[in-house]
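Section 3.1: Structural characterization of target chains.
Under the original work plan, the team committed to producing a structural model for every single-chain target entering the pipeline before any wet-lab resources were allocated. The record below documents one such target. The sequence was received from the expression subgroup and is listed exactly as submitted; it comprises 557 residues.
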Amino acid sequence: MRCSFFLALLLALTATHADDFGKKRFIGHSWDLLWVNTQDLVRNQEALEKLPLEGISISIYAKDAEGKQINLRTAMTAPPWERSWFEEEISRVKQISSGNLKHNLICTFWAPRKRLAWNDDTAWANAAHNMAIAAWIAREGGAKGLLIDPEDYPKSEQYTLLPEDGAYEETAALARQRGAQMMQAMAAEYPDITLLAFWFFSMNRTLYQRKVDLADYAHSRDILWPHFLNGFLDAIPPGAIMVDATEHGYQFKAADMDFYLSAWEIAKCAPMLVAPENRAKYRNQVQAGFGLYLDMYTNDEKSFWYFGPLNGSRLNHLRSNFTQASRASDQYCWVYGEKFRWIKWDWKFKDRDAPTWEDQLPGFERTLALIADPDRVCRQIVDEGLAQGTLVNLVTNPDCSPLIKGELKDAAADWTAGNLPEGWSFWRYDEKQGSFGFDTTKGLGDNYSARATGVSNGCFIVRTPVTPGNTYIIEGYSAGEGSPSLRARWQKEGKWVVPNKDVIVSFDKSKDSSVWRRAIGFVDVPPEADSLILLMGTNLAPNQTAWFDKPGIYHLP
């Protein structure tokens, strides 16, 4: 019931950001990316572009007129910056953004090293000026926007009400004013900017979880942050996006549906902290995302930051959590790590040559790629595996060859073999509607296939035993009319189980009915199942016909 409830909530969430839903992106962030400069990134660009990432965090280091180093960590409190200081940085950001990494984000830090008085116009004008420079660097360099880290590393308590601030109501109004001031400055430089934050309103999630009035919690930590963000919403231009990519995701568990719950809270509960006049903007321009912490899957079990094996493997645990995070997000997840490296850099950090994440978690990069772009990666794995003879199709008679007339074994009572070959059967909702049959004149690479005519609700069926916790790639081909579908369902000892864990994969689109269209994806076998049932579904009008061929089920080691 809990799982079905949250899946229903997820369907409701997808309607909010329908334009972007479906394309999910992983952004790389880490200690090594924080340490390197743009020169290092350019030198190592080829290696970085091989990672299954759509963008990385970029730290900007430059020199002022006196030759002193400056970086964006000090934007809130540094003296006003000059654009000319960053020209070389912009040229390198352009280079880094010219290839596969199209969603790069410039790192910014929003907890000032020295607290800014909320009524200090000069200090806030300076902070707005410097953050505008950061937005300008992002736009001119072809980056997608800014990475916003509001964590209070310097312990300046900028967003907590302090005695020197005065009354809560007045300070809250000032915080909102300053938020608008900052957004106006950034948007003037980059109107369609993406602002991805480790926390936006999710920093105060306990407040919207409890449905409280902010004024009743005037002395809570970071209580001024939601007021500051309301200022962001006051001034946000129509083309800009704010991503609440909550760092709370570090410890979320897919088994508990934590990512779905958090996405629902960000979409449906967090607006309690939003001014009524800004809620339409919030619905349209604030997305849900997650921070994902790689060290959880490599740390010793004594660590507080630890996830153990799932079905015998910590990589399986990562795949489970990252998959749900990606599905629950509107678009972005950022992947953070500390102890290891994304790539083998061409220089050593602190005289240490640390392993990569792939070294520590063999298969990590393929797993991340599979989650981010399952269609492309599944095609690559199957096509290369079959060509090299390293992949075995577990489907009996995928060619639909007429070797032996099929006798249905261990099947559901309403499945019918009819005249289909060994290993194939069919089902239809209305036994009198349309027809199923074996075609000896049309096939993919031969003259054999399964044919359906006029069946609005039915499917061809193949099956194979599977191992719980393992991953399999599924595929099928269809030609003809209608809107076919490929669906993985589950059985245990011949009985249907966990219908809420069905996986549906779409076929390629084509206006040419003679073309064989492919559907391909991957599934993780739930612990409740011992058999995978692959359904090639029909959706035909009375006079329409479709053919199905070459179903595939491949174990992914």
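The first helix runs from residue 2 to 14.
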